[in-house]
């Protein structure tokens, strides 16, 4: 597995080096001022403790995962404690003349650790604690003290802000890479489909047209599926638009979309006498779900089974019911079909309604047929309210009168 790249990792490595180098600098300053200190022994004990702490925690500052809040709190305490201890270890004259504190510029490393871990807000808190300790150690703030305090505060906040920007950029880059990977996978699937499924559908269409009769109908259906699949994998316009048919822009009358399903004398469509208006996409999806339900009737109930489509334009929803007089669905058959990977009801019917914010209920009694109720609430996307101003009147049509 490739190691995950991080735009902030170089900053953690730089912080590790900074802490070690500034520790050496602080020890050198202490050794140089040893003879001038008022209490050099306590200062030496602190420097020894600081050295053990810095070298023993190198692994803690190599990444954000191990740089925990308790560690940061102890680290900042080491810095603030060293600053306050300087007021007792060093002489008043040296302090007033601007001598360095015991931890010296090592203190900035504690602030930078806060900045890298938590961003500019954490850095501001740590900088404020260090500034308060510096001002307490000096007693009367001097120009140099204020200068150093402001410098540490600004540097910490600035680096913390840079880290936050870097993390946001890293997340954006990760999302872009995920999108690119998904696009490549889609292109690969499109190639596989083109090389396999589409070629088979095209062959079925050609041979069906050549054979004529019932095979020609099979060829026509294969051609329609090939066109729809090509549009799906390429993002092309729908098949109707590809053949030069104008794309629907305004509301669609659901009755007109369902009328072709009643082309057979064995399918009866009952719909309101006034338009049932839906936006194009929900209307097409609802009509496709009805088509999937009728396909199930033909496939499982036989060509001789009768089916009835009832459209109801209610005040709060559009309701479409598909009922047949077939043998019904045996108990447990839908679950078994889903386990076998046959997801016609789960995806083509229920999945479509779920994506639209509606629901699909299926009731089947062995020997008494099956009823599928598709309900699309008025609050769902694209369902037009007030499609009819009068109470709908139901009329029956079959395929010959519905064209």
TrEMBL record:
Positions of transmembrane segments: 12-35, 71-89, 95-116, 145-163
Domain Histidine kinase/HSP90-like ATPase residue range list: 286-378
Domain (Signal transduction histidine kinase subgroup 3 dimerisation and phosphoacceptor) ranges: 185-225
Domain DUF5931: 2-174
UniProt entry keywords in alphabetical sequence: Kinase, Membrane, Transferase, Transmembrane, Transmembrane helix, Two-component regulatory system
Name assigned to this protein: DUF5931 domain-containing protein
Coiled-coil residue windows: none
Pfam families on file: DUF5931, HATPase_c, HisKA_3
